[in-house]
Amino acid sequence: MFLTISTTGTTEKPATDLGFLLHKHPGKTQAFATSYGTAHVFYPQATDHRCTAALLLEVDPVALVRRSRGKGRDGSPDTALAQYVNDRPYAASSLLAVALSGVFRTALKGQCAARPELLRQARPLRIEIPVLPARGGADLVRRLFAPLGWDCVETGSVTLDEQFPEWGDSRYLRLVLEGELRLADALRQLYVLLPVLDDSKHYWIAPDEVDKLLRAGDGWLAGHPEHALITARYLARRKGLTQSAMERLELARLAEADGSEAEELDNAVDGTPADRDSAERERSVPLAVRRREAVLAALREAGAARVLDLGCGEGQLVQELLKDSAFTEIVGVDVSVRALTTASRRLRLERMGERQSSRVRLLQGSLVYTDKRLAGYDAAVLSEVVEHLDLPRLPALEYAVFGSARPRTVLVTTPNVEYNVRWETLPAGRVRHRDHRFEWTRGEFRAWADGVAARHGYAVAYRPVGDEDPEAGPPTQMAVFTRTADSPETDISETDTAGTGTDTAIPKEGEAA
Fold first, then answer.
1. Where are the extended beta strands (E) located within 384-494?
2. Which of 74, 149, 425, 467 is most exposed, with the fewest beta carbons within 10 Å of its own?
3. Phi first, then psi: what are they for 276, rounded to 5°?
4. Phi, psi (deg, nearest 5) at residue 353
5. Residue 427 pLDDT class (50, 70, 90 cuts)
6. Radius of gyration from C-alpha coordinates of the chain
């Protein structure tokens, strides 16, 4: 899968300025990991008068099959036998568009700190794609690119096999674009139109794809004569998403014609959370926020008043708990003094009123040791914590929380590794955070949680967090443990680890940790 970007210049304005715009040095060959293989950037030619940057995407066929499993649609090259024999390693599709956005992310955004004056300049550009899938043929290619300022939109047929010309031409085209455009504009056009021409995406279309489309299409999509076709194909013809995008594009077009901002025209809704359309709100709320909302909802449902946040980190959940007076005692526990110091600053403990400060404590402690201070609470939360422990240490955490502290309710959230295939920028085989020791499938998480519940006298239920994919499940999985009425209490005084039974003072801002 191959693409080249060329430009010309003079001694005064050298063509090698392309390297500043792309943020890739013309004298280097660089490689970048992507979800489906390795992207290589190199310069076959780099002189003052002509410079060419090449992007070569080397697709890993094993990663392609593993990460695309179950996502094929009728007519797409990802179905049945085609997962073994297909055009994905060679034809410029959404795979190349994602690599383009990852490798040239800063250029796509139109940023260049070293030479900001270059951003405003239209440059003579020549873009070549040797193998382009085009459902709609050469005519559709010209209809899509010609209105965007390109002086030349040249297409040529690609034969099925040069040794057997009688077999005729394939459905693929060779594309050459020439014209004077800003590089950022050209890259954004390619990012949108490559998957549109292929009419197939290799990843699940989530609601945030509308935002990606509108960001990349800013300044050109609303006025494009084929904007309806582009929108429908880019969003895989998902009716709800397409309608939402079309409404926002129409608003942008009206605002441009009126010489105003879209927000000024769209003033019928005051934008408060209570009045906001729930689907629109879900698209804009980060997963971390939705995870905290799910935890808070489960705690309220359980009627918890005294809550432990185990592995509280920098105190985001503690901060949310303090906003609700129903939570009368909140204890944040973390092994990191640095994290607790940050949490103290976030909560402004040194300036907090007496009534509020009496509701919250921050304690240093390890979750793999029993601790008498943690006994007797209504609920404990382990939010995105277990995956940071080595697997051999999980039994120690299990006993410390479920066998020793024994809160009435325990909430555990952890990433669902099956959903990782939906993160288009996450390389295959990588976990979401460099400190994750593991990430569980839904089945693995349930097997662990069922075992914990059985061993310690708890019932357990499971809830999704975030938009649930019909094949991959939710991005985050949550287990809600409820202690059964007949389960025995544990005498933690006999099992408490020495040195964990006293409070550790958390330094205030300005004090040494």
1. 409-415, 458-465, 476-483
2. 74
3. -75, 140
4. -65, 160
5. confident
6. 28
Whether 476 contacts 465, CB under 8 Å: yes
What is the pLDDT at residue 81? Answer: 53
| DSSP-derived secondary structure letter, 106 | H
Instruction: Report the phi/psi class of residue 112: left, alpha or beta, with left for phi > 0 and alpha for psi in -120 to 50.
Output: beta
Of 104, 92, 107, 108, the closest CA to residue 195 belongs to 92
Distance CA 90, CA 56 (A): 10
Token reading at 310: 């185990």
Ramachandran sector of residue 348 (left: φ over 0; alpha: ψ -120 to 50; beta: rest): left
Mean pLDDT calculated for residue range 66-72 = 52
Q: What percent of the chain is modeled with pLDDT above 70?
A: 81
Tokens read off for 6: 């060329």
Q: What is the maximum span of the chain, computed from C-alpha positions, in angstroms?
A: 87
Three-state DSSP class for residue 315: coil
Q: Where are the alpha helices (DSSP H) in 323-479?
A: 337-347, 354-357, 394-398, 442-456
Query: In the numeric block, which tokens belong to residue 438?
Result: 């593991």
pLDDT over 60 (residue 281): no
Residue with tokens 């544990």: 490
Q: Tell me: the pLDDT tens digits for 309-319?
A: 999 999 999 99
| The two three-digit tokens of residue 406, written as one number | 């024994």
Measuring CA to CA, which residue among 279, 73, 204 is closest to residue 470? 204
Tokens of 319: 């901060």
Q: Which residues of 260-283 are buried (b: 16+ CB within 10 A; e: fewer)?
A: eebeeeeeeeeeeeeeeeeeeeeb
Tokens representing 489?
């209490």
Query: In the predicted model, what is the mean pLDDT of the chain?
Result: 82
Phi/psi at 206 (5° precision)? -100, 165
Dist CA 287 CA 298 (whole Å): 16
Cα–Cα distances (Å) from 273 to 114, 249, 279, 282, in that order, read 40, 23, 12, 11
pTM of the model: 0.56
